Amino acid sequence: MTSDDPGPLVRLYGLTGGRARALGEAFDLVAIVTTVSVPFEPLGLVPEHLAVLTMCRRPTPVADIAAQLRVPLNITRVLLSDLRREGLVTIDQPSADQTIDERIYREVLHGIRRL
Prior knowledge:
Helix content is 45%, strand content 9%. It is mainly alpha-helical. α3 packs across α4 (73-85) and α3 (62-69) runs parallel beside α5 (102-114).
């Protein structure tokens, strides 16, 4: 890190405006995020918001988003809640009748550990 680099904590603080908790209804690691719309003029969105909108054109689990953004899960949740509040994404919990095999849980766990 150079003397000009503010470091990762300052960057994360800037991404969320200092917020550490997501607003609105809670969601977990296996919740599925899907892009609903992409604004013509993305005013107020940080590059990570735009990355989420791009990657979630196909339904994507929260854990995968955190791993691809390379930011902590709580920061990912804040970014996702911002997008949900703006009506740009939906965040759906898997229904009880959807079965997720053990392999997927292991992949999610390994992705979290890499963060």
